[in-house]
Amino acid sequence: MLLIYCPYCEEERSELEFRQAGDAHIARPTNMTEMTDEDFEAFFFLRDNVKGLTFERWRHLNGCGRFFNAARDTVSDKFLTTYKAGLPRPDLGTLRPATEATVETYEATESDAK
Amino acid sequence: MRKYSVFAVAREAMRGHRGWEAQWTSPEPRKEYDVIIIGAGGHGLGTAYYLAKEHGITNIAVLEKGWLGGGNTGRNTTIIRSNYLYDESAGIYDHALKLWDGLSQDLNYNVMYSARGVMMLSHNVHDQQVFKRHIHANRLNGIDNEWLTPEQAQEFCPPLDISRTARYPINGAALQRRGGTARHDAVAWGYARAAADRGVHIIQNCEVTGIRRNPDGSVAGVDTNRGQINAKKVGVVAAGHTSVLMEMAGVRMPLVSYPLQALVSEPIKPIFPCVVMSNTVHAYISQSDKGELVIGAGTDQYSSYSQTGGLQIITHTLDAICELFPIFRRMKMMRSWGGIVDVTPDRSPILAKTPVQGLYVNCGWGTGGFKATPGSANVFAHTIANDAPHKINAPFTLERFRSGRLIDEAAAAAVAH
Ligand SMILES: Cc1cc2nc3c(=O)[nH]c(=O)nc-3n(C[C@H](O)[C@H](O)[C@H](O)COP(=O)(O)OP(=O)(O)OC[C@H]3O[C@@H](n4cnc5c(N)ncnc54)[C@H](O)[C@@H]3O)c2cc1C
Ligand SMILES: [Zn+2]
Fold it and tell me: Ligand 1 centroid vs B41 CA: distance in angstroms?
């Protein structure tokens, strides 16, 4: 179970209180009826499904109830930072995402074992 | 390849088991193949086998970043059934079920397919209506599925508690008698041995790091940690890592990868004769031939490649199992693990050509593709050999997410496996 820092409540709470809510920074189209099928597919169905650093929305459902964004590494599941909804992607600067070489998940240790 | 038989077992018993051969070889990769398959799970190895057996293409490499069968093929709870709602799904899953029956003979390898029956519990009126709809739809497609009263369900599965005071009372069940289980490792090993025997190269510890293209955009081959390997046709069969590989060819996929967990108990004497699933309570359970109870949990809520998953997901499942089968309350769980499953928006797979000439993809099996292994491999081999889909997998395109022709098993089942 993960510990997640809610930027509104300003404290770490158990994952049980949160719901993941898909990718962050996807602008909902304002011209839905005029979009081509290709554009709608890209918006609605296609996903980057990143292995590594990803930006996603979370909701503190059983807490303050608010949506916020997070930068997380999908190999280690480690949260690099969380930030309020509406803010741009943070500059992660020196906060490098963990790589398979530095994190001891199954995936990482399996590639070590090679 | 020396044939496996009861006589071979007797012969080897007489001479200290010194005569068994390696089941497959570990050759050095060639510079070029006719077909490269990325991913040595059941679906990838099976594809190579059927390409060699049914289409006469034997100059094939199956590239695997870890060890063969080490992905979801070796991590799943081995439930096999074909009672899906839509005609398209019925077509592909039942094609697989027909191949399961006879697969051990075809491969000369005991995959331990056991048609012990898969029973899905109904807990309320809504379940009952949904299951009966499935039963009727299945029968129209010539697929066995029948409705049982609670008493009939208990007769089929004696440990089942059908009392009205149960925490989750049961008002009936749907039973597919041809459903059951198979030994997951044996499926990977059996396909690997039979494919290698026909000349297929299985290259383990070989991670694909790039997909090469010709100036006209078509596929030229792959880059790996063991160098460049050329091929005009490349099939991506990489389950949870499909998005990562397709990105190397510039194709964005309608997939999200999630951890999915399973666990087994300490082994006990035979007590559980079939597979039982409860979608409403979210639990499914069977007993392996070694005696362990095999229990499947749900996916985590966030995308991940960690192959672990949260502890709360497992405990939630065990809560449900203990409520359904109080008899198991004091059992110890022995091992738990996770796999990374690739989930599509409609919960149906993609077995198709891609926008890149010569690049094919077989993915999106999500939480429930083990059952489909022989059928999927069989029609995917056809697709690669003919550069056109078999009629069974023709509906399972990538384009359906543009045209809207979804095969919406997600809405039909709410949960899979
Ligand atoms: C816990 C769990 C329970 C399940 N229970 C059931 C069930 O009861 N019934 C059912 O029908 N299904 C079930 N499933 C789903 C089922 O396991 C999968 O759908 C199926 O096994 C997928 O097979 P595959 O051959 O496509 O993938 P895999 O067996 O995962 O094979 C893909 C391979 O690709 C390799 N690969 C990835 N990236 C690269 C690369 N860059 N280069 C080279 N190789 C690469 C991987 O290492 C892997 O070995 C379950 C899954 C899990 C995780
Ligand atoms: Zn909060």
Answer: 6
